[in-house]
Amino acid sequence: MDRFPSEFEALLNRKGRRVLADAPQLEDLIAKRRTPIVFFDDIIDRGVVDDCIRLLDDALYPCLRRMHTPIPRESLTGMTANYSEALAKTVRVRTATFNSRASQALAAARESGLYDMMTSASFRRFAQAVTGSHLREDFWGRQVICYESGDYSGPHNDHHPERAEARNGFIDFHVMFSNAAVANQLLVYEERGFLSSARDVSCRSAIAIYRLPFWHYTTPLVARAGRESEARRWLLLGSFDYDPPLDTLAY
C-alpha cells in the first residue's frame, strides 16, 4: 500500500465490515448508566496495519509539532488550603491538525491519501453506526496524535459548555495503531462516578468511539525494554457534532 485508501472502509477486514453493519449503540449504554464508549479490536488485518504505520512514520511524523503542557508549579505552590488542589489538563504528545490550508501537515496528509480517507463518507459512517442521532455531514474535526515513550494525556472531560453545538455531547472517533516497540498504554475512564475502568489501547490496531463529555486520561506509554526510541502509538481522531445539536446533556 503506497498511500491511504480514499475510503476508510477499505482498511477493514470482514469482521470490521460486519461491525459496521451491526454496531453496538451508545444510547443503550447511557440507558444502563454505563460510560458511552465502545471498542473494536482486530478489525484491520496486520499487513494493512503495518502499511498504515509506515505511511504515518514516513509522511506525517516529520510534520508533527510537540504539544507539551506540564503541570504548573503554582498548582501546588499557590495552594492556601488543604485538599483544594485543582489540575487543568496536562499533556505530552506530538500532533497535527488539518485546519490550516498552509500547514505542512495538511500537504503531507493530502499527498499520502490520509486527508481523503479521514474526510471520506465511510469514515463518518463508522462513527454514525454507533448512535441513533444524526451526525453532521458537511464538516468534522480531524487530528493526528502520536504517543511516544512516556507520553500521556492527563485527566480531562472534553466538555465544551461555550459551544452551543457541542455543549450537550459530541462523538470522538479514534483509529489507533501501535508499532511492535510499544508494550503498554491504558485509557482510564469514569464509570458511575469513579475513574474505575481501564482499557489497554496499545494493541496493534483498535478503534474506540466515545460520546463525550466524561472524565478520562491515558497513562504514560510504556515501551519494550531497549526500544524506547522506537515506540509510537498513532491515533487518527475525528470529532463529530450532532445535527441538530442534542437538547440535553446525558451524564
Compact summary:
22% of the residues lie in helices and 31% in strands. It has helices at 14-21, 26-31, 46-60, 74-77, 104-112, 114-118, 121-128; strands spanning 37-41, 65-69, 91-97, 141-148, 152-156, 170-178, 182-184, 186-191, 194-200, 205-212, 216-218, 222-223, 232-241.
Report the total helices. Answer: 7
Helix content: 10-25%
> What's the helix-strand series?
HHEHEHEHHHEEEEEEEEEE
- The name CATH uses for the topology is Jelly Rolls
At CATH's second level, what is the architecture? Sandwich
Low-pLDDT stretches: none
Search tags:
single chain; alpha+beta; Jelly Rolls; 11-stranded antiparallel β-sheet; two-stranded antiparallel ribbon; 7 helices; 22% helix; globular
Can you put this structure into words, describing what you see?
The chain is an alpha+beta fold and about 250 residues long. The protein is about 20% helix and about 30% strand. It is built from 7 helices and 13 strands. Helix 3 runs antiparallel to helix 5. The longest helix has 15 residues, at about 45-60. It is globular and about 60 Å long.
Spell out the blueprint of helices and strands.
Layout: H1 14-21, H2 26-31, E1 37-41, H3 46-60, E2 65-69, H4 74-77, E3 91-97, H5 104-112, H6 114-118, H7 121-128, E4 141-148, E5 152-156, E6 170-178, E7 182-184, E8 186-191, E9 194-200, E10 205-212, E11 216-218, E12 222-223, E13 232-241
Antiparallel strand pairs: 1-10, 2-3, 3-4, 3-5, 4-13, 5-11, 6-10, 6-13, 7-12, 8-9, 8-11
Helix pairs in contact: 3-5
